[in-house]
Structure to design on (205 residues):
């Protein structure tokens, strides 16, 4: 649903990281365009998208970098996560190896990223319950121990997709008061009346 944005717009750089085929592009496509493609092509290098989200009377404009999961593009990743306000580390709940890979991304972010970056862990393909290899409790515990927030998502059914971005937006807005917004990868601009996804239309489950 479209809504009028408040006058305050926060630009926030967000990066998606995760194993090849975990569903990074599909999550972005669902969030930005409300679409799902059964045979989504593998990302080459990285792809850029933007989407705005209203949270109360403020608007967060996400500048989204969808990185490629293939190992040969690994060395490019720092260009995208450096200076990011937020990161979504994605794994596939039906693929244990993708969870192992997600943990490596978290380690890399913790070692090299901005300490203020809001990091979300997304257990994607939550619709594939019968093929589940990663237990929800295991991921929850890991997330708690590492200061991440965690949701299982499905780009296919849209479960928790808007919710994870909305939760990130909320946390960014909450956090900005306590820190330098520029340092956290957030920039204030004044651009009223942009079309945004309103909080009211957000958060299907
Ligand atoms: N069942 C199901 N399939 C999904 C879901 N999300 C993505 N897929 C499928 O998984 C495959 C890989 O999805 P992508 O979005 O390309 O994965 P990616 O992480 O961007 O992959 P790379 O670009 O190669 O790093 C595609 O065939 C998608 O249709 C989901 O939530 N459920």
């Amino acid at each position: 649903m479209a809504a009028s944005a408040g006058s305050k717009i926060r630009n926030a750089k967000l990066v998606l990281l995760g194993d090849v085929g975990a569903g990074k592009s599909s999550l972005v496509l669902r969030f930005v365009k409300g679409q799902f493609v059964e045979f989504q092509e593998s990302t080459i290098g990285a792809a850029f998208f933007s989407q705005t989200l209203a949270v109360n009377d403020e608007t967060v404009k996400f500048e989204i970098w969808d990185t490629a999961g293939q190992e040969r593009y690994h060395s490019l990743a720092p260009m995208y996560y450096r200076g990011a306000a937020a990161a979504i580390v994605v794994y596939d709940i039906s693929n244990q190896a993708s969870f192992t890979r997600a943990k490596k991304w978290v380690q890399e972010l913790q070692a090299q990223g901005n300490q203020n970056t809001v990091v979300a862990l997304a257990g994607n393909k939550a619709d594939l319950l019968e093929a589940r290899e990663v237990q929800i409790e295991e991921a929850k515990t890991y997330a708690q121990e590492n200061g991440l927030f965690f949701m299982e998502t499905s780009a296919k059914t849209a479960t928790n997709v808007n919710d994870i971005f909305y939760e990130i937006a909320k946390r960014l807005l909450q956090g900005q008061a306590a820190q330098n917004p520029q340092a956290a990868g957030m920039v204030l601009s004044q651009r009223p009346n942009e079309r945004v996804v309103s909080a009211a239309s957000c958060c299907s489950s």
Residues 54 and 198 are 5 Å apart (CA to CA). The first helix runs from residue 24 to 33.
